[in-house]
Amino acid sequence: MLNPEHFVQGCRHSETGYRRAFAACSKILFTFAAASRGLSFFYHLPLRYMKPTIFSLQTLLRDGLVALSLAGSSLLSAQPLTTQYAARLTPPPVYACLYTPEPPQIDGNVDEHVWERAVAISQLHDIQGEGFPKPSLPTEIRMLWDSTYLYVAARLVEPYIEATLATHDDIVWHENDFEVFLDPDGDGLGYFEIEINALGTLLDLQMSQPYRSGGHFFTAWNCPGIRRAVKLEGTLSDSTQRDTAWTIEMAIPHRALAVDFNDALAQSRVWRMNFSRVEWLHRQGPEENWVWAPTGVVDIHMPERWGYVCLVDSLNEPADAVKAETPYRPDDYRFLWLLFYTQKDFYAQHHRYISRLQDFPLAPEDFALLHLDAAHGSAASLPADGRGAEPQVEVSATPRAFELSLRRDSLVLVLDQNGYFSVERDE
Ligand SMILES: [Ca+2]
Ligand SMILES: [Ca+2]
Ligand SMILES: [Ca+2]
Q: Does this model's pTM top 0.90?
C-alpha cells in the first residue's frame, strides 16, 4: 500500500536532488545594495527608457553589479509585474490562534465559553479576491490550540441545509461543504485538506504538491484521531422549511499532520491554512468558492496564498492584544512568488526559465515589496557597510528548473520551480 507520508518524503528527497543540481549551475547575484544607493531605479529603466540611463548603467557596470540583458523583455507589458500579478500578491491574512488550557467539547455547540476568547474570522471572500461579489451568506470561524489538537469552530448561515453524501471520502464539495486546508510546515508541499458536509461526512486527503506542479491527491489518507461534530439550526434537506445555520467543531491532532516523524507543532508554530466554503447557490452551478484567504484565481491549491496561523502561547492578554508574527517578512516572500509567477508565464511562452535576475522585466515599482524605500530598508537606514537590512536576490536556472533565493540578514528564503519553499538560517 502506498503510504502518503513516504511519498511526501520521496518528494522532498527529489527536491533536495534538484537543489544539488542547482548548486552546480552558474549563479547570478544582484545585490540590492545598488538599490540602497538609488541605482535600482535607473537599472530597471533601460527596459523602457533607454536614453536617460546611460550614465546610470555606466555606474552600475563600474560597480560590477550587472551585465544587462534584455532577454526577458518579451514579457514586458505596459504594467509593472506587481500590477500584472496584483490579484496573486495581496497580503495573506494573519491569525493569532490562542492556546486554550481548557479544550472545547466537540459537540457542534460553538457557543460554549471556551470559544469566547478565540478571535473570530467573520469575513470570507470570493476566491478571486477584490472585484468579485462578496459572499451572500455569513460565515464565522474560530481557532484554538493545545498540545494535542488544533480546534476549529465554524458557523455557516444557511437558509436551506442540504447534504446527501454520507460515505467517508465521498466528494462532499459536490454539495455545500466547509473545507480546511493545512500546510503546517508552510513548505508548499505535502499539505492536507479536510472537508465536511452537514451530515458530518468527511473527505480527508493529502496532496503531494499543488496540481500546477503535477501534484496528486491521496484520499486514502484518513486524518488519524480527528474528532468532529456538526449541529443543525434547522432541518436537513427539507426545502419546505427555512433553516438558520449549521455549525461545525473539529479537533485535528497535530500528530495527524506529522511529516518526517515530526509533530507538526515541533516543525512550526506558524502554519499556512485556508478555509473554503463551497456554496451551490444554483443547483446547476457554478458553485461559489468563499474563502478566508483569496488566492486571486479559481484555484485553492496555491498554499503560498493561504493565511498565516500563528499558534501563540498567550493566556492572559486579551485576544486582540496578542501579536501574531510571521517567521520572515511576508513581503520578501511575496517578491519571490512574483518572480515565480513570472517564471511560469515565461516558460509557457518560451519553454525555458529565466536564468538571471536582470532578465526579469521588473519595474522600479516592483521593488516596493522589498521596502527599500520604507523604514525597514531605506538608503538612510541601511548600515554604512552595506550589510544588514539590504536583501540579496539570487536566481539560478536550467531550461526546466529554477531556484530563487532572497537573503536578508541571516535569513535565506528559497523557492523552486515546484513551489517548494524553505527558510534557511545562514549564521
Ligand atoms: Ca462545543
Ligand atoms: Ca508541507
Ligand atoms: Ca480520506
A: no
